[in-house]
Amino acid sequence: MRKVLTAIGLIIISTTMMSHAQSAQSIPVADNETSQLWFVELSSPPSIDGTAVATLEREEATFTPPPRAPASAIPNAATSASCSTA
Hints:
The protein is an all-alpha fold. It has three helices and no strands. The protein has a domain of 29 residues.
């Protein structure tokens, strides 16, 4: 009987530990804002696929980011601590 209770206890503990280890980690939206960083996909394939580096540098030089929306167009802009109007 003692072995059965020990086995049940170990199963409960290991199940609890596994479910906790697999729980999704949440990041607050304010900490997830990356307004200083942009991901840019150029129209040419990467250099590893055979595109000349000069071609990629020319595309990068002519890239202009899209205009940013004014703060008034962003929902809850007044209450968002991470929103910038720059």
